[in-house]
Amino acid sequence: MEEINSKTHVLVLPCPVQGHINPIVQFSKILASKEVKVTILTIDFVCKAMLLDCGPLINIESIPHEAIPVGLENFLEWFQTLMLEKFSGIVEKFGDSEYPVKVVVIDSIISWIIDLAHELGLKVAALHTQPVALSVLYYHIDQEDSTNKIPFECSVPVSLSSLPLLEKEDLPSFICETHAYPIVKRLAFGQNFNFKKADWLYMTVFDWSRIKFNKEKRVVNWLRTQYSIKTIGPVVLSIYLDKEYDSSLTKPHYETCKKWLDSREIGSVIYVSFGSLVSLREKQMEELAFGLIMSNSYFLWVVRDTEENKLPNEFKSKASEKGLIVDWSPQLDVLAHKSIGCFFTHCGWNSTLEALILGVPMVCMPQWVDQPTNAKFISDIWRTGIRVKAGKDGVITREEIASSIKEVMVEKKGVMLKENAIKWKILAKEAIDKGGSSYKNIEEFIEACNALN
Predict the structure, then answer these.
(1) Which of 107, 121, 251, 312 is deepest in the core (most CB within 10 A)?
(2) Of 9, 44, 65, 107, which residue is the catalytic one?
């Protein structure tokens, strides 16, 4: 750490889930590049599964543990218990070093660490790895805190300050399904605790002061009237510009994907990916598979090993003519490739933001949590994509899938969607360039950290 001139030491605590790890690791790299000492606090499972290599300027403090529990909800609850047990000792250990910890940067859903951090004399920066619209939504409808909140019924459209009218299908899945995903729901609404207790509130979006989509600007500005939030995104763009892709939980098939994409015409390929957690029903996998064939476009489809057995046998033989199937991909490289014409996505926030900043229109097939709300903004507010419609049984048919792809890839509407997406790409680059809104906000954070020494 000899290169570091500042005595500032920031401890970074990510949520150990792929979609949350990437943005907070990239923010850590930005801080480290500006001579801040950064230590990422995680668990052995993440280190081993991720092969986390953040470069010589970032330390990794890994907590050993026994076997992890099965199931996302059990895992998150176990992680919380383990981290609360070990956190004080780790902070105290650094207290005896040349670089004692002064600040902890947390993923926004790890709000349960804030009180303990403050007891240890640390300042807390909460990094919200979700769209601002979700923060506004959770603020309004936190069912565990009725103070100044607006009641609603899922059977009618939801009308909330600064947000567009939201139908039931536009809301996060656990809101109307009151008994579904209790731990995830508690963590999501727990983010409101950040607004009350965290010393800094950062959003992984960028300032849209020049954008014509005024409804999105209105959402950001409304939250600013309630809390002192700062935009620092898109942090994922810095990883793209630096050409560093070491933080993927599964090793990307870079050469395989690149060679295949290089052989395709400009804008001729559909990129299909549903992230690291979404699991489609077998019937839906079948409809998606044959919908891709019916679209008559080339496609690159990421199918995780755990999902591959759901692919129809007859599809695999037909897919070789038009498609490439891999178990993971270097998503930023793929989305930036000239052959990509659209992104068929589950609308996770990282995927949504990556498509926006790389100017790629989307076909939206949201599944759960924040994805339906993201899809609403993509299709109706930002107008950078369209949303497939499910049948009465909840299944999206192959015909609907094929027609939606054609609408983006070959019809006139696709041109408009592409033009809108390119506007976002330009604004994202402006935000992170020197003098841009995100650049300035990060510089101010570092100055505030340095002042603590």
Answers:
(1) 107
(2) 107
